[in-house]
Amino acid sequence: MIFKTFVMLCLYFVPIVLVTTGAVVQTWQLFACYVASGLGMAGIGMGIMHDAIHGTYSQNPKINKLLGYTLNLVGANATVWRVQHNVLHHSYTNIPEGDDDINAPFFLRFSPHAPKNKMHAFQHWYTWIFYGLSTVSWVTSKDFIRFDRYYKMGMFKGENVYRNTVLKIIAWKLVYYFIILGLPIAFSPFGVGEIILAFLALHFVTGLSISLVFQTAHIMPEVSFPQANEFGIVEGERMLHQLATTSNYSEKNHLFSWAIGGLNYQVEHHLFPDICHVHYRHIAPIVKATAAEYNIPYYTKKTFFDALKAHAKMLYHLGNVEMQPVKA
Q: By three-state DSSP, how is residue 88 classified?
């Protein structure tokens, strides 16, 4: 974890330093640096802050809190993400209204229970573009919108907590924009337009990378999309729910797994979110054998490409069929 942290932080910051100090002078070098920084940003999100905010990076809570702030350094907000991911996504996986990962805007349909319109028939073509744009909204408006909603849901309480949290979100975002845009614009030899286009390229790489890794774990043909009953209660046992709504992929590719923070083992992560991701590949055979012993589904795809194909098939199905997902 320490080595990975060093690698991902360097991959994110070093290209920006090269741009800011004028070490790169050609436009293609500028874009190469920002794309590399985008990969570092994705690596920080998947391999550092994800474990830290779950409290699994270290046994020391202070270290977890400190490294959780790496999310703030890449433009998002650890406080908001903790509620969105740790509380809602892990508690209400694939449940409409509860899981913000499937609560999509009107032009995307990620659940068979969501309203369907004519645009959705084409979402298997255009969803990938919005995946690439997803982190742009993350570093601009999404944190404010979600915090406001979570506050109204009662997720945040205390005197002046609303004002203080909003001010902290703004302050962190100013730090982010100062590093990623302000310094390069002020000191690099490139124009403002070139920097902004490179910035958008960075986010397209990051957004596409993170979205594909996370969405191929839950929006799949085999998995379930449970609904709450009239009283807002979802019936069933927690671990069985996670097995029914989650899928693994590319379990044999250890380098790929290292690069994406072990998130190809989403089943194990959802069953044991309090265990560091470096252990998932050792836990997976035990989970798989136990699931087989009790005749419980354990979903997995052989390769990441297989997972992407199945995810694309699911996007098509959700855009063209009203309710229940098709089996792969």
A: helix
- Supply the angle between the helices 192-215 and 27-44 in degrees, to the nearest 10: 30
Contacts of 166 (CB under 8 A, 6+ apart): 144, 147
Residue 298 has pLDDT above 50, yes or no: yes
- Cβ atoms 16, 184 nearer than 8 A: yes
Cα 113 to Cα 116, 127, 231, 289, 323: the distances in Å are: 9, 18, 17, 32, 6
The three-class DSSP label of residue 93 is coil
Are the CB atoms for 99 and 70 separated by under 8 Å?
no
Residue with the two structure tokens 């919005």: 130
* Cβ pair 234, 95 in contact under 8 A: yes
Euclidean distance between CA atoms 49 and 13, whole angstroms? 16
Q: How far apart are CA 246 and CA 299, in angstroms?
A: 7
230, pLDDT greater than 80: no
Tokens 């989403």, residue?
Answer: 266
Task: For tokens 């994406």, name the residue.
Answer: 260
pTM of the model: 0.92
Between residues 120 and 321, the one the model is more confident about: 120
- What lies within 8 Å, CB to CB, of 140 at 6+ separation is none
Query: What is the 3-state secondary structure of 176-241?
Result: HHHHHHHHHHHHCCCCHHHHHHHHHHHHHHHHHHHHHHHHCCCCCCCCCCCCCCCCCCCCCCHHHH
The structure tokens 């830290």 sit at: 52
| DSSP-based three-state secondary structure for 51 | helix
